[in-house]
Design a protein that fits this description.
This protein is of the alpha/beta class. Among the domains are: 28-150, no CATH class; 312-418 and 425-463, Histidine kinase-like ATPase, C-terminal domain (Heat Shock Protein 90, 2-Layer Sandwich); 579-694, Rossmann fold (3-Layer(aba) Sandwich), CATH 3.40.50. The strands form 4 sheets. It has a 5-stranded mixed β-sheet with strand order 2-4-5-7-6. A 5-stranded mixed β-sheet has the order 9-8-10-11-17, with helices on both faces. α21 (646-656) packs parallel to α22 (672-681). The longest helix has 68 residues, at 152-219. It is elongated and about 125 Å long. The relative contact order is 0.06. Residues 1-19, 305-310, 418-428, 467-484 and 735-749 have low confidence and may be disordered.
Length: 749
């Protein structure tokens, strides 16, 4: 009953300036445009019609009056919508009376009735009544003073039209407004009831689902755990595929940036004249930042493929001033383009920091880049000081500041303060989230202090030394009652650090790079083949030998036949690399964009000295031009052929028979895979070597090993066997977090 009473109250119980009434208004811009164009149109028509000079002067005077009133109305619209709409009505009235007075056409006074109708749609029904009264009064004053030559019949007709149209508009508009308002009210109420029903339905469904889940957990806990693991694997695979696709799209433009900037920096003579030093310095900045972006893309790819919860850090003793200076150099062009300053205040006696140089530099880059985007005047200042066992760093800027209610959203992924900030300053909203994660992984913390209008200061703390693995409460000694007290002063004995050392046998460097990046604090030494392992172990004892071989079975056979020490375990896996991918495609080499000039020329040298004619196949004209420029700057007299798809390349292959083909894989029409199939089926083309040049990184696909074998020449003791079974079973049966813990337990101390 309460809802019905509310609905029956109708629009009369609400203010005229409600949101619903505002939605029914028309825009004043069409009226102003017609009024603005009326004078020029009349003047244009009057010339061919041969009107008198007095009429033309009147049209000019009318046009000026219309221009002035229109301009005032537009200005008021910027200040106040309601005032601008009323000024639009005034401008329309001035235009109508101006046309009657300036043109000597009293019949134009009948148009005042139109202004009454327009006022109802432009402002409101009460405004229509005010307009009708004002127009009637103006007509009467005009008639009594004899202005414009209006007689009594003309004025009477205009007044009658005004009130007839006003009455008709009132009769038509009022029922329509009431019907529309009631419809809108019932619609809103129905939406509220629908949302309420959906919420209740969701709650009931959630309750039923919770009950079902509780029964499943009680009866089939193991099955549920396996299902959750499979769902996590599917989500991880989807993330890996997404990251791989995005990286493929990023590598092509990065190849252009790095390639051309490298050409200009290292081979400026190619362009025929000396380049200014300032231009070369700017290009060096472009090249350095593009290379940094390429490294970040590699990091994102690796993160999407490694079966670990956290990213490993490569820590070393580093001077904080070097990291700050490197980040400042990278962002200085942004600051200088806006007339901003970057100041650093770092004590000279600041101790070295044990951290990952690349990650902490990325933190400074994120904070300084944010300051450069948001600050309009002033700049940013980086300060640091030692406080007990950590270093406190502050990055302060003179920007607009941050409201207190927005502080909690700063370090969340894909979050910026509001939509207007995102549109004005761009950015993905990931920088602060990534920075927070990096600082916390170093055992530190990051926070922000700011007020609106007073700038922003980001603080973060980093420990000077790594935390001790022994926590409080450990008891160690001859008697159970003795509590172990950790040494509180530095030892006078020389500090010797002996990180775990692995020998890697792999034909490809990609697996070594993967291990070095994510096995934190482990030394990886690579040897070309199994026979070289014995010499390496004899000279430098290691804790394990890792063998990455396409066939695990053949690798085990090679180990059985080799003369190797019996006290070192051998771990054999099969992780495909670039060479394996090239072998599967039947090509001579596989280069992943961005490709430097040196890498391209080195790949051609591996083909042989007979290379004279090179066919480049890529659907990007800029890529064709870049690689042609690289080849021409090498000093060798290469003959370069170019094709933009597989069909054009096939014609060139059959007509010119080049010595080598540089082939992109992803192209429209006939792609690189189809072209390789055609070449393989043609005896005349089968012998032409092919070097793949593609942004499609094979390492970007999910990294999988089809087997893992562990062997030891002297055999495994029962303890080693049982421990290996326990750890491996945990790795393959639990989620990623437990797997990471199991991996940590297996690393040598």
């Amino acid at each position: 009953m309460e809802n019905s009473a509310t609905a029956r109250s109708g629009p009369s119980s609400h203010q005229s300036e409600s949101g619903f009434d505002v939605e029914l208004r028309i825009s004043p811009l069409p009226v102003l445009i017609v009024l603005f164009l009326a004078g020029p149109i009349l003047y244009t028509v009057s010339v061919p019609l041969g009107m008198s000079g007095q009429v033309q002067h009147g049209i000019i005077l009318f046009s000026l009056t219309a221009f002035l009133s229109t301009g005032v109305a537009l200005a008021l619209l910027q200040w106040s919508d309601l005032a601008g709409r009323w000024m639009t009505m005034v401008a329309l009235t001035v235009g109508i009376y101006g046309s009657a007075l300036c043109l000597g056409a009293p019949v134009a006074l009948n148009l005042v009735a139109v202004s009454v109708v327009i006022s109802a749609s432009l402002i409101s029904l009460p405004a229509m009544g005010v307009t009708a009264v004002c127009q009637t009064a103006l007509l009467i004053v005009l008639f009594r003073n004899g202005w414009g030559g209006a007689d009594g019949a003309t004025v009477t007709t205009a007044v009658v039209l005004v009130w007839l149209l006003a009455g008709a508009m009132l009769l038509l508009r009022r029922p329509i407004d009431e019907l529309a308002y009631w419809t809108w009210t019932y619609y809103q109420r129905a939406q509220e009831l629908l949302e309420d029903a959906r919420e209740r339905q969701a709650k009931y469904a959630q309750a039923l689902e919770d009950s079902a889940q509780m029964n499943i957990q009680l009866k089939r806990m193991n099955s549920l755990a396996q299902g959750l693991r499979r769902a996590a694997e599917e989500a991880r695979t989807a993330k890996e595929e997404f990251v791989a696709n995005v990286s493929h799209e990023l590598r092509t433009p990065l190849n252009m940036i790095i390639g051309f900037s490298e050409m200009i920096l290292h081979a400026p003579d190619t362009y025929g004249r000396a380049l200014p030093p300032m231009l070369l310095a700017d290009l060096a900045v472009v090249h350095r930042n593009a290379a940094h972006l390429a490294e970040l893309i590699d990091d994102v790819l690796d993160l999407s493929q490694i079966e670990a919860e956290q990213m490993a850090l490569t820590k070393e003793n580093t001077q904080l001033s070097e990291l700050v200076e490197a980040a400042a150099i990278a962002v200085r062009p942004l600051f200088e383009s806006k007339g901003l300053h970057i100041k650093t205040r770092l004590p000279e006696d600041l101790p070295a920091l044990f951290c990952d140089r690349t990650r902490i530099r990325e933190v400074f880059l994120n904070l300084l880049s944010n300051a450069g985007r948001f600050v309009e005047h002033g700049g940013a200042t980086v300060t640091a000081e030692r406080q007990d066992d950590h270093i406190l760093v502050a990055v302060a800027d003179t920007g607009p500041g941050i409201a207190a209610e927005d502080m909690g959203r700063l370090f969340q992924p894909f979050q910026q303060l509001d939509g207007s900030i995102r549109r004005r300053y761009s950015g993905s909203g990931l920088g602060l989230c990534i920075s927070k994660r990096i600082i916390e992984m170093h055992g530190g913390k990051i926070w922000v202090e700011s007020e609106l209008g007073s700038g922003t200061v980001f603080y973060f703390e980093l420990p000077l030394t790594a935390p001790s693995p022994l926590g409080s409460g450990y008891r160690l000694g001859l008697y159970p009652g003795w509590e172990y007290l950790q040494r509180t002063r530095p030892s006078m004995a020389p500090q010797v650090s002996a990180p775990p050392r692995f020998v890697l046998v792999d034909k490809d460097l990609s697996f070594q790079r993967l291990l070095s990046r994510y096995l934190d604090g482990v030394e990886i030494v690579s040897v070309p083949s199994v026979p070289d392992v014995a010499q390496e172990l004899a000279e430098h004892p290691s804790q394990a030998v890792l063998i990455n071989e396409r066939s695990v079975a053949s690798a085990l056979v090679d180990l059985d036949q080799a003369d190797l020490p019996g006290d070192v375990p051998f771990l054999v896996c099969s992780v495909p690399g670039i060479h394996e991918v090239a072998a599967d495609l039947g090509v001579a080499d596989y280069l992943v964009k961005p490709i430097s000039r040196d890498r391209l020329l080195a790949a051609l040298e591996r083909i042989g000295p007979h290379v004279e004619t090179v066919l480049i196949v890529d659907d990007e004209p800029d890529v064709l031009r870049l690689f042609r420029r690289m080849l021409s700057s090498s000093g060798a007299d290469y003959r370069v052929l170019r094709a933009m798809d597989g069909r054009e390349a096939l014609n060139l292959l059959r007509s010119h028979h080049p010595d080598v083909v540089l082939l992109d894989l992803v192209m429209p029409d006939m792609d690189g895979f189809c072209l390789l199939d055609v070449m393989d089926q043609d005896p005349d083309l089968r012998t032409i070597p092919v070097i793949v040049i593609s942004a499609l990184d094979p390492a970007g696909q999910p990294i999988m090993s089809n087997a893992l074998a562990v062997t030891r020449r002297g055999g495994l003791s029962m303890y080693q066997l049982l421990t290996s079974i326990r750890v491996l079973s945990e790795v393959f049966s639990v989620g990623r977090q437990s797997a990471g813990q199991a991996l940590t337990q297996t690393l040598p101390a």
